[in-house]
Amino acid sequence: ALGCAEGDFIVAYVGRVSAEKGLRYAIDALVDCPARIKLLVAGEGEEMAALKERASALGLGERVRFLGYIKQPFD
User: Fold this and answer.
1) How many Cβ atoms from other residues are within 10 Å of residue 9's Cβ?
2) Per residue in 43-67, is it b (16+ CB within 10 Å) or e — as a string?
3) How many CA atoms lie within 13 A of 39 on its CB side?
4) What is the rounded end-to-end Cα distance, in angstroms, of the chain?
């Protein structure tokens, strides 16, 4: 359901998507990481559009998944 394959290493962020959270740095770092490392972002906020654009510009569209708001992420 999350678009991840067996053997992928998942890094997940759950929270408000805003500049002070530093998600831009996590996305930038993926460029230098093995392709099996994926980033899942669960949340909403003012940085969402900019982060999606950045991930796409860096060619990471398949490695960064923006899940949006999830009511109860740990159920």
Assistant:
1) 10
2) bbbebbeebbebbeeeebeebbbbb
3) 21
4) 15
